[in-house]
Amino acid sequence: MPGFSIRIKICGLTRIDEARACLEAGSDWIGLNFHPGSSRYVPPARAREIVAALDCPSRIVGLFVDRPVDEVAQLADSLGIRVVQLHGNEPPEDLPALGRFQIIRAFRLGGPDDVRAMGDYLDRARSLGRLPDAVLIDALVPGCVGGTGVLMKQDVLSLIPPLPHLILAGGLDPENVADRIGRARPWMVDVASGVESSPGRKDPAKVAAFIRAARSTERP
Question: What is the pTM of this model?
Answer without folding.
Answer: 0.94
